[in-house]
């Protein structure tokens, strides 16, 4: 029996909140357990319906649900069930108690070559799975990469993900400013190639601890991005091969980016910077992770920041936009 079948009879009232794992734009992510099951825990993402409607994000939320329901990949967080009530919609998901990659990066300052290779290889595996199904992710950043208890990385938060059939483009400006590709800023239309740009940015940030395109605000950041990767100073600890890979991923012309060429995403795997990296062992989860998180039990939230209790509940939203949720 697969897990989705197992969750068929679970109701929202069966879930017990243990702690808050994160707070986002539309609500919170809670660590929960199912009544009478102390062996497992899950992440429950609860989002305020009225706020989603106010910010006109209904379609994005529906895309998130639809895409996550069909995704089954070891490098992507799994969705088990959805719920809704008058105030919130809920996603019951796999939880990753190793914490956010962002927290680990903040504590360490930057990562070495081996650590960066391992984590970005996990992202490449996730992208390969998504892109082969015409899904553009559009929100790569260390905050959206979580470590499971074994130290492997999983992609989380599909709020900006969208299915874009091969040969087509999408035009919405979305994503985190520092990671947005130039064609997204220019509203020229974008596709999976925008994800390869953000992968180049991620490699730079993990190796240096700083984002190459950071400005005082989003407008300043976009200006820096539009000047291109060649205007960016590369510190000495970025080797020649790493710099070459970043520049090939962050080409201004999306059609010229590594990963979007004839050989597809395999061209990234074959790049000199990943030389002798064991992709097969990674897929089989046999590679030793660079960092093994300390997780004592299924309710241990010590790898996450602490958050104050929930603020006042939102107003009911009975407009029915979530009828298909």
Q: How is the biggest beta sheet arranged? A: 5 strands, antiparallel
Shape designation: globular
Distance between the termini: 24 Å
CATH superfamily of the largest domain: Transferase(Phosphotransferase) domain 1
**Backbone CA Rg:** 20 Å
Backbone structural class:
alpha+beta
Folded structure, characterized:
It is a single chain. With 325 residues, this protein is α+β, with helices and mostly antiparallel strands. It has 2 domains: 3-94, 2-Layer Sandwich (Phosphorylase Kinase, domain 1), CATH 3.30.200.20; 100-284, Transferase(Phosphotransferase), domain 1 (Orthogonal Bundle). 30% of the residues lie in helices and 15% in strands. It is built from 11 helices and 10 strands. It has helices spanning 3-6, 49-54, 58-70, 101-108, 113-131, 182-185, 193-208, 218-227, 240-249, 266-269, 279-283; strands at residues 15-23, 27-34, 42-48, 79-84, 88-94, 99-100, 135-136, 145-147, 153-155, 162-163. The strands form 3 sheets. A 5-stranded antiparallel sheet has the order 1-2-3-5-4. A hairpin with a 3-residue loop joins strand 4 (79-84) and strand 5. The mean pLDDT is 93. This is cGMP-dependent protein kinase. Residues 298-325 are annotated as: Disordered. It holds the Pfam family Pkinase. Keywords: ATP-binding, Kinase, Nucleotide-binding, Serine/threonine-protein kinase, Transferase. It comes from Apolygus lucorum (Small green plant bug).
